[in-house]
């Protein structure tokens, strides 16, 4: 594994000419591409770009990588590189050409970027606002891989909000970046059918994989300028927003229908997850509040058992929670505080005669 040295990365740029040569080769006639991204889904895009750039027929080389600064992770709070930085290092990318500015408006970063002379910048879940000074640098523009069918779901959480809405179809878009949020002209898009069990992390990965292939197919036209001629303006009147998730949204309320709650579990999988408070009643009818994290669910098509309207039932491998509109949410997997994930059936077996109820 390549050594990771945050201080040297933060100095941004020392040996651009020699490093750029090592990154892509000098005198090849290939255009300079700068990649911006941070999480694992973005690392998969970078991996495909590095692979494609190695082809003799490729019109581009990856000249620099821009990502979020190292962050404290895990219990030891050790500074760790972003998934994109780690992938670049593992692939032998020059360390001094991995830029980690706190903000993309920093003059030292913008100066370093200018010295790389990017023809195009590609963003994929970068997580930093790009100022106009940045957008003015690449001669062929900045293109974003956005996991929705723009102008739908503009914003930080397009996949999660689409799943929360229960959409049957979504997709991925390539669009030029402008100062307005995800509002630039569209180069291309691809549709993707959404089944009713897929969760956000899985769908996000699939859409960025699809977006990588779409990008590599469109890069020749982006680099020769013809993409700008064919790009279509978005219809702002049809735009919807996909605001960032927050932890307070993670609570489930069983006065909603089961399908609404199931969609929320799918959408909030990964982070922040979904939580619920239930009532645990022991053999002496003494109630206590039990908090659970709901991991996997489905909507019950029928419930053959009948009990108290607030009683939570067990059927086969599922925990059956009564919801609004005479619907039932089947919980298949859950997690108790400080415990490992467990199957609903195993959880039920451990109750030993205690009853579960919805909170009154």
Automatic annotation (TrEMBL):
Residues 32-216 form the Formyl transferase N-terminal domain. Pfam families: Formyl_trans_C (PF02911), Formyl_trans_N (PF00551). GO terms for cellular component: mitochondrion. Its EC number is 2.1.2.9. CDD domains: FMT_core_Met-tRNA-FMT_N (cd08646), Met_tRNA_FMT_C (cd08704). Residues 244-351 form the Formyl transferase C-terminal domain. Keywords: Protein biosynthesis, Transferase. The keyword Hydrolase does not apply. GO terms for molecular function: methionyl-tRNA formyltransferase activity. Gene3D superfamilies: Formyl transferase, C-terminal domain (3.10.25.10), Formyl transferase, N-terminal domain (3.40.50.170). It is an enzyme of class 2 (transferase). HAMAP family: Formyl_trans. PANTHER family: METHIONYL-TRNA FORMYLTRANSFERASE (PTHR11138), METHIONYL-TRNA FORMYLTRANSFERASE, MITOCHONDRIAL (PTHR11138:SF5). Belongs to the Fmt family. NCBIfam families: fmt (TIGR00460). This is Methionyl-tRNA formyltransferase, mitochondrial. It comes from Miscanthus lutarioriparius.
